[in-house]
């Protein structure tokens, strides 16, 4: 097996008495979509927050591209190539969809301390940003303020922003949440094509999508990973069936 | 041309035309009043960069305004008395030099104040910027070398090459030109990559960090730039009054600068200009009618905050446009 | 002799701290429960001082004046809460700052209108005149000791009020979950008025107590207000315990700085120079302390919530 892109070892995080992350280890391999599933309150989002840098782990290591990123802040991790989407859309609400993506293009170029050239006529920002909006099918809404986009469109915009960062890994926190069946199906196809651009750690409740997309699945219950394996292995795993799939299986 | 742009041009034309007319008919007092509008507007343009664009509610910009003023006063005093400042460096009465010093001093002081204050957010940020400004205020009061509580007089208005600054009109024109330059600079910054980042930091700092731009650094630079413009205004204000005192550093001054922006319209290019025009007019008109003008100013301000959100420009030109 | 001086200055610092606590407790309570930043808190302090001075000189009784200060400050507080402040709870901090800034202009100018620009004076009540001997020689004003005692009583009283009473329970609930207590049928707008009036009364009490030490005049509340801000920033906004600790830190550091810095500097430079430089540095000291504390704990010593 090749060197993992993202390597998490024995990560721990407690909120008072609650062990939200209780010794999690996980590898994200190149070219793979690695799904993270688990019942509500299992600590999936907390884990994503620690990887992205918006929460600090109590102990354990997170290595990204071979580098220990545990002490870096969120912006520094993003610059290294970790692109995240948020469970609840987090956008610059007053900016248009296009300006939101342009901000990511500008961030990728590392050029936020330029004071004179006007962004509204800057093709080096507009063109790549527009291209990303086209890829996610949002080009026709480019000039609409983010606050006025529909829920599904905001999710698409989050993905376009992540794409614009040309990341080394995607962290997607429930990208399908609140999308209709049609939207979920389209997004599944779209995410499927992304694995060759960069590997993806995917938190998702939509099991159809997870089983269709994932190369590997980890099951998180009460802050612990109880099983990791291929789709078939997870389906067959008795502990997973008991703890998670329960009667539904 | 949008409606707001038209109003902006009208305001600028009005602000230029009135003192020209006043000077023409021999009413220099109104020229000085207009200069006061221009200088306060400039100070508020500086604050607007932090408050309007960046959403940083600095309640301590009087510190930078006063520091700019003291830079002018101290340099002029040393030049007047022919005493070197320190290490043989002489004072100066040249405005361009004084401006540079005022800008530099305001920026240098804003850097550590911003670096500490920006670690906090919300109401903490408001109170900490206020507290730092008070620190400088009390320092100015208790430091006797430059007048302490009594302040410092500038006996002869500082000079500008080729113009007679002692006359009200040329001095107004200098200040007006500086204001226009600052407005252009504000417009440029607002539309630049940096401006995008500052506005994004106001709207959603987490989003900004998630794409890899550190909000802290963006906010700090915005804060320092903002302080530099307000510092420049302080130097002009000192020369306007030929006096600088601790009152320029007081928290009333910080409050007034915020009031100017809110009166005119927060985050709008000409908000500070409209705000300063309204404020100085109110002050002048109310002050002419009653000794208790501050009482009525307070009532009017309260009414505006409670019932007229968006300020003067908001009332006239509707919602701000988004790009 | 130095020991006596030191003790005297420490007590002065404590007395300043107590007075700041009375101010800061109201500010921090109002912020914690209603999320409001109230610049006009200093005006309520001023109102308390004026009410006390006017009633005391009319009746000859400081104690009636003291009651008047509580009534006047709480009354004006309740009035402005109903008329203005309650429209601000859902607004952002900028609107709150500006509206309460406007209130300062109105209340200060209003006070000048009513009472004139000349300061009023308030005598220390007979009962509390005189001094107490200090260990190591020297004497200490009884009245200042009484202020310290009042502060301790108020601190204990506030603690009991919040920890033990039904009102306190509602205040605590209001801090954590507004919708919940509204859903439970507590009249939230009355609760807010009561909390605001309580904070106002404490500010008024502080103003009246200090009024007998200084002159009573317009604008007297503003320096105190800003010190009280420093206190709650240090202590952690929303925390009464933080307000108490912060107030004592600020009171003692400020007083001791003014006392000790000039003498310390005198060891290394001429006395006259040491006095001016020491005074200037001492006036900045609490802000430096605040900056240091915030550098390590950006939300204060006893941050209520993150």
UniProtKB/TrEMBL annotation, chain A:
The record's Gene3D superfamilies line, in alphabetical order, gives: P-loop containing nucleotide triphosphate hydrolases
Q: Does the keyword DNA-binding apply?
A: no
| The entry's keywords | ATP-binding, Nucleotide-binding, Transport
Q: Which Pfam families match?
A: ABC_tran, BCA_ABC_TP_C
Signal peptide stretch: none
Origin superkingdom: Bacteria
Q: Which InterPro entries is this protein grouped with? A: AAA+_ATPase (IPR003593), ABC_AA/LPS_Transport (IPR051120), ABC_transporter-like_ATP-bd (IPR003439), BCA_ABC_TP_C (IPR032823), P-loop_NTPase (IPR027417)
Q: Name one GO molecular function term.
A: ATP binding
Domain spans labelled ABC transporter: 6-247
Q: What is this protein called?
A: ABC transporter ATP-binding protein
Q: What species is given as this protein's source?
A: Shinella curvata
From TrEMBL, chain B:
Q: How does it sit in the membrane?
A: Multi-pass membrane protein
Question: Could you read off the lineage of the organism from its UniProt record?
Answer: Bacteria, Pseudomonadati, Pseudomonadota, Alphaproteobacteria, Hyphomicrobiales
Localized where? Cell membrane
Alphabetically sorted, this entry's keywords are: Cell membrane, Membrane, Transmembrane, Transmembrane helix
- Its protein name is Branched-chain amino acid ABC transporter permease
Q: Which domain of life is it from?
A: Bacteria
The organism is Shinella curvata
Q: Mind telling me which residue stretches traverse the membrane in this protein?
A: 33-51, 58-77, 97-116, 123-146, 169-189, 216-237, 270-289, 295-316
From TrEMBL, chain C:
The places in or outside the cell where this protein is found are: Cell membrane
Kindly indicate whether the keyword DNA repair belongs to this entry: no
The protein's topology relative to the membrane is: Multi-pass membrane protein
Question: What positions belong to coiled-coil segments?
Answer: none
Entry keyword annotation includes Ubl conjugation? no
* Chain segments annotated as transmembrane: 16-37, 44-64, 70-89, 101-122, 142-162, 183-213, 225-253, 274-296
**Tree of life domain:** Bacteria
Keyword terms, alphabetized = Amino-acid transport, Cell membrane, Membrane, Transmembrane, Transmembrane helix, Transport
Q: Which family does it belong to?
A: Belongs to the binding-protein-dependent transport system permease family. LivHM subfamily.
Instruction: Tell me which PANTHER family the record gives.
Output: ABC TRANSPORTER ATP-BINDING PROTEIN, BRANCHED-CHAIN AMINO ACID TRANSPORT SYSTEM PERMEASE PROTEIN LIVH
Name the UniProt record assigns to this protein: Branched-chain amino acid ABC transporter permease
């Amino acid at each position: 097996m090749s060197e993992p892109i993202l390597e998490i070892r024995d990560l721990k995080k407690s909120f008072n008495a609650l062990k939200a992350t209780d010794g999690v280890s996980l590898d994200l391999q190149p070219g793979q979509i690695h799904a993270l599933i688990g019942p509500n309150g299992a600590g999936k989002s907390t884990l994503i927050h620690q990887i992205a840098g918006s929460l600090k782990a109590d102990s354990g290591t997170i290595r990204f591209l071979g580098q220990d990123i545990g002490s870096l802040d969120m912006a520094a991790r993003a610059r290294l190539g970790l692109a995240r989407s948020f469970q609840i859309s987090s956008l610059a609400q007053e900016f248009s969809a296009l300006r939101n993506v342009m901000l990511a293009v500008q961030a990728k170029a590392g050029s936020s301390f330029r004071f004179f050239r006007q962004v509204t006529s800057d093709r080096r920002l507009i063109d790549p940003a527009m291209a990303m909006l086209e890829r996610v099918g949002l080009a026709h809404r480019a000039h609409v303020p983010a606050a006025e986009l529909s829920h599904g469109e905001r999710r698409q915009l989050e993905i376009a922003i992540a794409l614009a960062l040309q990341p080394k890994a995607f962290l997607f926190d429930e990208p399908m949440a609140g999308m209709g069946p049609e939207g979920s199906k389209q997004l599944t196809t779209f995410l499927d094509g992304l694995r060759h651009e960069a590997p993806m750690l995917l938190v998702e409740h939509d099991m159809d999508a997870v089983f269709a997309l994932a190369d590997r699945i980890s099951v998180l219950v009460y802050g612990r990973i109880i099983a990791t394996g291929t789709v078939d292995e997870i389906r067959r795993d008795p502990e997973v069936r008991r703890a998670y799939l329960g009667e539904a299986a | 041309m949008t409606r707001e742009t038209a109003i902006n041009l009208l305001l600028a034309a009005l602000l230029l035309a009135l003192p020209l007319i006043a000077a023409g008919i021999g009413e220099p007092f109104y020229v000085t009043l207009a200069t006061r509008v221009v200088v306060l507007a400039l100070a508020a343009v500086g604050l607007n960069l932090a408050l309007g664009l960046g959403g940083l509610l600095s309640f301590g910009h009087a510190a930078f305004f006063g520091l700019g003023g003291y830079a002018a006063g101290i340099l002029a005093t040393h030049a007047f008395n022919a005493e070197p400042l320190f290490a043989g460096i002489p004072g100066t009465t040249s405005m361009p030099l004084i401006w540079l010093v005022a800008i530099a001093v305001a920026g240098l002081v804003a850097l550590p104040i911003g670096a500490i204050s920006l670690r906090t957010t919300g109401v903490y940020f408001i109170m900490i910027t206020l507290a730092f400004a008070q620190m400088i205020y009390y320092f100015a009061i208790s430091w006797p070398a430059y007048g302490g509580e009594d302040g410092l007089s500038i006996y002869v208005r500082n000079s500008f090459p080729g113009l007679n600054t002692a006359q009200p009109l040329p001095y107004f024109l200098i200040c007006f030109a500086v204001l226009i330059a600052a407005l252009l600079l504000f417009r440029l910054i607002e539309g630049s990559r940096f401006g995008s980042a500052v506005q994004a930091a106001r709207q959603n700092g987490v989003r900004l960090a998630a794409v890899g731009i550190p909000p802290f650094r963006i906010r700090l630079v915005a804060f320092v730039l903002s302080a530099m413009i307000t510092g420049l205004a302080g130097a002009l204000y000192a020369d306007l009054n030929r006096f600088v005192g601790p009152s320029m550093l007081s928290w009333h001054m910080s409050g007034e600068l915020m009031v100017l922006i809110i009166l005119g319209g927060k985050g709008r290019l000409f908000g500070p200009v409209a705000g300063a025009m309204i404020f100085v007019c109110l002050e002048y008109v109310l002050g002419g009618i009653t000794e208790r003008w501050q009482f009525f100013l307070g009532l009017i301000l309260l009414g505006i905050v409670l019932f007229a959100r968006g300020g003067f420009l908001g009332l006239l030109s509707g919602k701000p446009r988004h790009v | 002799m130095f020991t006596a001086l030191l003790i005297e200055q420490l007590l002065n610092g404590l007395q300043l701290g107590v007075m700041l606590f009375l101010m800061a407790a109201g500010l921090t309570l109002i912020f914690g429960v209603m999320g409001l930043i109230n610049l006009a808190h200093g005006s309520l302090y001023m109102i308390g001082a004026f009410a006390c001075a006017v009633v005391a000189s009319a009746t000859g009784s400081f104690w009636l004046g003291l009651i008047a200060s509580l009534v006047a400050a709480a009354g004006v507080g309740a009035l402005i809460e109903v008329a203005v402040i309650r429209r601000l709870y859902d607004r952002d901090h900028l609107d709150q700052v500006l509206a309460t800034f406007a209130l300062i202009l109105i209340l200060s100018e209003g006070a000048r209108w009513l009472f004139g620009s000349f300061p009023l004076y308030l005598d220390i009540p007979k009962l509390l005149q005189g001094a107490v001997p200090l260990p190591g020689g020297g004497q200490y004003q009884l009245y200042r000791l009484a202020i310290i005692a009042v502060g301790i009583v108020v601190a204990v009283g506030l603690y009991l009020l919040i920890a033990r009473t039904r009102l306190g329970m509602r205040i605590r609930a209001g801090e954590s979950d507004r919708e919940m207590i509204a859903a439970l049928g507590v009249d939230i707008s009355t609760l807010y008025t009561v909390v605001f009036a309580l904070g106002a009364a404490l500010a008024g009490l502080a103003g009246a107590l200090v009024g007998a030490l200084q002159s009573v005049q317009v604008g007297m509340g503003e320096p105190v207000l800003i010190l009280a801000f420093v206190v709650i920033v240090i202590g952690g906004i929303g925390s009464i315990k933080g307000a108490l600790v912060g107030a004592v830190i600020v009171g003692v550091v400020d007083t001791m700085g003014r006392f000790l810095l000039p003498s310390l500097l005198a060891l290394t430079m001429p006395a006259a120079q040491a006095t001016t430089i020491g005074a200037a540095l001492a006036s900045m000291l609490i802000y430096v302390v605040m900056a240091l504390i915030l550098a390590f704990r950006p939300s204060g010593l006893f941050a209520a919530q993150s």
